[in-house]
Aspartokinase
Amino acid sequence: MKVVKFGGSSLASATQLEKVLQIVKEDPERRFVVVSAPGKRNEQDTKVTDALIRYYRDYVEENDVTSHQEWIIERYSDMVKELNLKPSIIEKISKSILKLATLPIEDNDFLYDAFLAAGENNNAKLIAAYFNQNGIAARYVHPKEAGMIVSSEPGNAQILPGSYDKIEELANAQEVLVIPGFFGVTQDGQICTFSRGGSDITGSIIAAGVKADLYENFTDVDGIFAAHPGIIAHPHSIPELTYREMRELAYAGFSVLHDEALIPAYRGKIPLVIKNTNNPSHPGTRIVLQHTTQALPVVGIAADSHFTSINMSKYLMNREVGFGRKVLQILEDLNIRWEHMPTGIDDLSLILRDRELTPIKEEEILRQLRQKLEVDHAEIEHGLSIIMIVGENMKSHVGLTATATKALSDHQINIQMISQGSSEVSIMIVINSEQEKAAIKALYQAFFSEVH
Ligand code: ASP
């Protein structure tokens, strides 16, 4: 049995819902359907979740909220009309949207979450009604009934491990179950959402809970591309990725799937596939525990900008006991997270995301490095990008770093730092952000020219 999750763009209009109906109909193993709120119908459109945020803001500021209510209700009623659904469904939806503006504002930590969750909750009701009217016996299931019990962290809920036993019982259902994504309920019965984009997490939890054979995540692209399509024209979609490869690519900006969505499926050993609602016959990208086919040594190349490097050197640094700890202590005291730490004999760099620093913190770090640690040289360098060349099969291949460095040197791209963890699942290269696009193009050509 399969759990299918549809993202907002797959559920934005009646035309999209017709595709969803066909996808669910054509495979009787698709027994659990997790849905997002309606997304954008075109570039200029607004996602229902974003409209709910505006509605919430005006409500708490005690402004007039009628235009928000009308706009949101109309989004659903357009679909209800186009799909010829019974009017009773839109009555239900509209009541639920209006009711939000009666919830208590004072001392209500979960008010924002209640507004946000209404997007998926009402969509699930609409979709269950649509399925029932079109030949699929379906039932809407509220996350509370499903057993999605989460921690009391508004906007950042975490599933409680005890939930899985209850979720498993869903496997006995006779109908197709339509479950709203993005939120669960706390032990006190409060609606509490995951972080933004969190419907992917719900799908993964349900898949792990019911011990599905497959978790299908339907979006609007043919899977995960080997490089960013904004940089490489028509990059190929990766047929198969391991969870570790996916994690490395996601780290450097590949964001097709919510980061936290990998964990439940991974722990439950459930394979995952990313597919395209608009092109469902495309096999998409499978995310598996171990490669089943002989994948290329490199599966994807990702890049992310906005990194800073704190560089320092001190003669005989390698002989000084505790030097590294003292450097990290400076960062810890300033509540700064770091990402990478390439070292030489007498020098050390710390690479971190720009957002961790402020001019005052930078000055303080340099001061402490010079005064307390007595480094010979310390500087802070901005404007860096990280390139990740990812592939588990790199382990068994010789010369891949040489291929990468040659491709970059042929294009006059200076490598500031390079490192490869002992797991050899990725090679990380730090370069100047101005050369990021050129670097991706050069590397894509070097590693994938044969794929095309
Ligand atoms: N609708 C929510 C959001 O826009 C969650 C989701 O679509 O996954 O963040």
The first helix runs from residue 14 to 25. The longest strand covers residues 300-313.
